[in-house]
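Long-time lurker, first post.

We've been arguing in lab meeting about whether zinc ion would sit comfortably in this protein at all. Half the group thinks yes, half thinks no, and nobody has a model to point at. So I'm putting the question to the forum: if I give you the sequence and the SMILES, can you give me back a predicted structure of the complex? Inputs are below. Any interpretation is welcome too.
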Amino acid sequence: MNDALYSDNADSLDSPSYEIFALRYATHDTRRSGENYLGDDPHDDIAMPLDFYVWVIRGEGRTVLVDTGFDAATAMRRGRRYLHAPVDLLNALGIDAHDIDTVIISHMHYDHAGNIRAFPGATLRIQEAEMAYCTGRCMCHAVVRRPFESRDVCAAIERLHAGRVVFADGDEVIAPGISVHLVGGHTAGLQVVRVNTARGHVVLASDAAHYWDHVRSGHLFPIVHNVPSMLDGHRMITKLADSPDHVIPGHDPLVRARFPHWNGHPDIVALHAQPVSDMHAVEGELALETGDAR
Ligand SMILES: [Zn+2]
Ligand SMILES: [Zn+2]
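Top reply:
Settle the argument with this. Predicted structure of the protein with zinc ion, as tokens:
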């Protein structure tokens, strides 16, 4: 671990700053108890939708994609509501999938690594531990294998054999102002992405935190490789980010409610901009909409 990367935030003045967009491409109607919280009390069984995002980092002549989402066939097979192909959302931002040269894969679960072949010119940036995990003995267990698609794993291996995979082993700088950090916990090699923006350091937590509430309450999503590592991960992302508003959870519908929409697009929000509303106010509004007391 390189403590200098997150001992303070003084480097933000020297680093280039980037735009970051969250692109929601699918959604799923889940319940809080059992589905979204490990070991939750059944009386907390309320509606708690799960959104699916990919993220774009843009600036300094670079466009970096974080995760690739899944495709329509996978959505149908797994019963998820598909809203857009991620490449169509990129097109809305004026980005052609063929022009993407860097894709950071947070981890190899189906909802994060499902469209690798749609980015034929991209080099994948992934943790060595994640590739070992999704191709190793842990996959002998059906329950561990379930959030993976073998064709996604094959696509990553094809890219490796084309000479277009760069492995990280811990913390790694992708470009000035953009770094990845090994967290683990949810999968063996889950990594988060730290990005300098005009409002400070934002951390794209991916599945290190599905919802803001997981970090705040110390609870976990039920898909866990290592419980203490996942809890340590909450602390690590908090430390890497400039404030709780700078931690961007991987699946929280509040992301779309809290950040300004790009060009009025319903499913693209700007994470480099200040949040437009307070966390608790938005939670209250959502609870009223769904009739739930959260
Ligand atoms: Zn995951
Ligand atoms: Zn996920």
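For your lab meeting: Confidence is low (pLDDT under 50) at residues 1-8, 290-294. The domain at 3-30+48-276 is CATH 3.60.15.10 (Metallo-beta-lactamase; Chain A). Whichever side wins, do check it experimentally.
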